[in-house]
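seq as requested:
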Amino acid sequence: MHNVLVYGNGKSRLEFDVTRQFKNIITWGCNKIHHETKVDNLVAVDYLAQQEIYKSGYAKENTCWFLDWNILPKEFTDKPVFGSRHLELLKLGFIEDEIFETDKGSRTRCVVQGKNPKTAVQKYGNLLTTEMSEDEDKQLRHKCMRNAGLYITWLDSKDKVKNIKEFKGKSSGNTAIYLACTQGAKNVYMLGFDLSTENKPHSNVYQLEDYKNGFDSTTWQNQIKTVMRQFKQVKFYWVSPQEHKGNFSGIDNLEFVTMKNLNKWIEEVNYGRL
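struct tokens:
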């Protein structure tokens, strides 16, 4: 059973030095945190984020967990089909701006992901209603268009990427919490999970365009609750802020704590007092 620290990318974690290394604590991080530090496990569920991480070389030496990371064998990319190859035929269904492909070089294996943007736009149009607010409209569009396009990532001979086989969250943070629990977590400290609130600037370290403005984070909250209820034997500690604390009443294995509590716990664990 492990002691775990999961880094979200909310601004509340800026008070903490994420480059710190620990003896008895396993760290999990999300997406762009690899620009700041190495974590024991890096999680990414958006295909473009996965490509960016892979191209950086980070995955060669560091464990990563990617959604839909199903490797296609060399035979798929080389075998002719009607005078062409599988991938070339696949590309015909997309325009150039919709194809995201890493450098192939001498690589022979790849991961292919994505969905047709035309289908995504159609789904968005079918679900859109006049009663929706501007924020609801934006959330729906983001949901429908997420991971739209064709993503082809050519693989090195060796890497440390693991495929996320059970997807329990719609964000990397929620997924990281879930995966930590499946890997034997006993105590899980959550830092930088600031969530979001409508009509307020979104708290994100990297100021991503998709999350520039606040939004209704009820879906994310419900996903976190689901994980906590599933792993009742795990104790969760949510480090400030506590704006959404009231929404988590009834979760008996969750405690809201301060940064001071986190630092005290780290000191105790590192010195073997727990």
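The first helix runs from residue 47 to 56.
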